[in-house]
Structure of L-rhamnose isomerase:
Amino acid sequence: MTNIQQRYDEAKAKYAKLGVDTEAVLKKLNEVKISMHVWQGDDVKGFLSDEELSGGISVTGNYPGAATTPAELRQDLEAAYAMIPGKHKLNLHAIYLDTEEDVDLDQLEPKHFEKWVSWAKEQGLGLDFNPTFFSHPMFKDGFTLASPDASVRQFWIEHGKRARKIAAYMGQETGQVCVNNFWVPDGYKDNPIDRFTPRERLMTALDEIFAEELPAEYTLDAVESKLFGLGAEAYTVGSHEFYMGYGLTRDKLICLDAGHFHPTEVISNKLSSLALFSKGILLHVSRPVRWDSDHVVIMDDELQEIGRELVRNDLLAKTHIGLDFFDATINRVAAWVIGTRNTQKALLKAMLEPSDELKEIELSGDFTTRLALTEELKDYPFADVWNYYCESQGVPVGLDWLTTVKEYEETVLQERK
Ligand code: RNT
Ligand code: ZN
């Protein structure tokens, strides 16, 4: 018997005493798909043009080996997925088109993503999508869909419509629903006089984009809010209130990005409310450090709280879990592996909790036991369950993946110019 098996058996017995069935937990965990974001692989550059990254987001670092072609990106993604247990999704952005044709955002068609789709099918991956409302000359004076200039709005409306067609195509081809997420950076650096009219313009533009019904089994639209961005510090048109209202009245998924709120405000505390009223939730699991810095997701309190909220409230079925971070100071494949595995681990930890019992304890008013037991649970051998899961899924156990990533860095990444 392997050491891992033995430790798992012990952990299994320990959790069983709490009434937690680790076998059932691992089955459930294995069904959760994480949508890994392509843009960690090349610092949000994409393949549309050489435009600088704009839209108030920023990547720092120049770690060697960033992918410069779709083929390199796919190679890196394969390396990362090989170290992540389970079957997942890939989250693409419009600027990641793979074509020889010279096309702009308002001319995109499904065929420009054919190579991604056939690769995803081959790999057994689902696909998600995002129209790109940044890094483009039509991002004018900080505005896209909410621009006061009708021709600017029109360009982006056309892009949005085309993105939806592409998402529907991806969903149809892969047989898994493709979540199409709309985030626009529009806003003002300094205090605006008129906060209302840009929001009204954004609402109208979105309504135009979403006018056509597309099959819900192929694609679902999501809308992502934000508090501020670089250069849009004073006012962001697509705020949380804006998209709560928009998403609820238009039956869209509402996307919560962990970095898009005030520094002490957490998305974990929003999930239960949103779940009561929204069609569904999209998460951008990220890690803000002092601002929306998009650091790699670590096993911090908020990540664990997000996991608990999803599990305790049974929200996994109506939640689509995506990642959103970009760090160019470390190996980018490692960034994916660390962030994705952490997100899975946080869910596993939550699933290993005797949540029904905890709910009863709370209802009975025994807050002493609630505190004592939740603290005690922190010492439970969840890692033994995780290691067993990794082994049974044929992916590296513990830190073994790092050796593989270092080898990959030496043999593949360092060869890149
Ligand atoms: C920006 C948003 C958005 C982007 C991606 C690249 O603040 O979080 O989701 O990070 O679209
Ligand atoms: Zn985001």
User: Anything to note?
Assistant: The longest strand covers residues 219-224. The chain has a mean pLDDT of 98. Residues 253 and 279 are 6 Å apart (CA to CA). Residues 150-174 form the longest helix (25 residues).
